[in-house]
């Protein structure tokens, strides 16, 4: 009954339906008009995303191939892991990252020509906080990501979006406009606080609206309570 909006990304997407999460906020925002479908995979980079994309998204042969309204593509934080640090196995070189984003765009557009694809840049990195939150042993004592490096991936994401004729939500730049952004928006130097989730939600909603995808243009799935005639309640249901 309702069209779909898919969220395709890494742990920042996987966690987005938690309390105060940006995905949960999207689901609430589009309630009665679209179903927000979570497809987040912790630790994944664009190389791995391409390996699973045909499994992640339904086809007509699956009996569920109706085109979604949009796919939010949110990778890059893991691609940007440094190749000489403890998370090197997640690293994807910058040029390959760009090509992978192009491929993701092309695959989704071939499947659903009308779909809106919204890339989201990785968030900025608080390097000092990352040292306090290694997820495996860190023998070098150095952060596995650097903010300047992640910035290059964020700019690449924006560039690929422009190449593909779409727009990107540049949260790397947006978050750093605020003082004390590391503590305000990041819980461990990478993942989002409730305030960080709010920034992502607001950026995604703004970009979707700029592309014409907003509540004002979407019909509700069933009659609203205000449309029901108290003297003939069943009339509105035909």
Automatic annotation (TrEMBL):
Q: Which Gene3D superfamilies match?
A: SGNH hydrolase (3.40.50.1110)
Q: Which domain of life is it from?
A: Eukaryota
Q: What residue range is the signal peptide? A: none
Q: Which CDD domains match?
A: Isoamyl_acetate_hydrolase_like
- Which keywords has UniProt assigned to this entry? Hydrolase
GO molecular function (one) = hydrolase activity, acting on ester bonds
* One Pfam family linked to the record: Lipase_GDSL
Q: Which InterPro entries match?
A: GDSL, Iah1-like, SGNH_hydro_sf
Family note: Belongs to the 'GDSL' lipolytic enzyme family.
What protein name does the entry list? SGNH hydrolase-type esterase domain-containing protein
Organismal lineage:
Eukaryota, Viridiplantae, Streptophyta, Embryophyta, Tracheophyta
């Amino acid at each position: 009954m309702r069209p779909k909006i898919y969220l395709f990304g890494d742990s920042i997407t996987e966690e987005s339906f938690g309390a105060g999460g940006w995905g949960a906020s999207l689901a609430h925002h589009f309630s009665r008009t679209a179903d927000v479908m979570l497809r987040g995979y912790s630790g994944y980079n664009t190389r791995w995303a391409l390996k699973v994309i045909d499994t992640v998204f339904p086809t007509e042969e699956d009996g569920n191939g109706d085109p979604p309204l949009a796919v939010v593509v949110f990778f890059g934080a893991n691609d940007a892991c440094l190749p000489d640090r403890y998370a090197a196995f997640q690293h994807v070189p910058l040029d390959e990252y760009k090509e992978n984003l192009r491929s993701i765009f092309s695959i989704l557009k071939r499947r659903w020509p009308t779909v809106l694809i919204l890339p989201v840049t990785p968030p900025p990195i608080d390097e000092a906080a990352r040292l306090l939150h290694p997820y495996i042993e860190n023998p070098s004592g150095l952060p596995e990501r650097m903010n300047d490096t992640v910035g290059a991936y964020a700019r690449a994401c924006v560039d690929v979006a422009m190449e593909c004729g779409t727009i990107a939500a540049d949260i790397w730049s947006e978050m750093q406009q605020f003082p004390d952004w590391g503590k305000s928006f990041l819980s461990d130097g990478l993942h989002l606080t409730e305030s960080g989730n709010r920034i992502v939600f607001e950026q995604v909603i703004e970009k979707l609206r700029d592309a014409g995808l907003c509540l004002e243009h979407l019909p509700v799935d069933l009659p609203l309570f205000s449309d029901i005639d108290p003297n003939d309640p069943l009339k509105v249901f035909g």
